[in-house]
Write a structure and sequence with these properties.
Blueprint: H1 3-24, E1 27-30, E2 38-41, H2 45-55
Antiparallel strand pairs: 1-2
C-alpha cells in the first residue's frame, strides 16, 4: 500500500470517528469565517419544548 492510500484510509477513519462522537454526545460544531470553531452541546428537544412552554 502506498503512502497516499494509507493517509486516505487514516483520514477516513478519523472522520468517521469524529462524526460518530459528535452524534453520540449531541454536539454541534460551528465555524464562522475568521473565527475558531465553536463546540457546544445541544439540548434535547423535549427539554427545549418544556422550557418554551414554561417561559413564554
Amino acid at each position: 500500500m502506498n503512502k497516499f492510500e494509507e493517509v486516505k484510509e487514516r483520514l477516513a477513519d478519523m472522520v468517521v470517528k469524529a462524526y460518530s462522537t459528535i452524534k453520540e454526545n449531541s454536539l454541534e460544531v460551528t465555524k464562522e469565517k475568521g473565527q475558531a470553531p465553536r463546540v457546544r452541546t445541544i439540548r434535547p428537544t423535549r427539554h427545549t419544548i418544556k422550557w418554551k412552554a414554561k417561559n413564554h
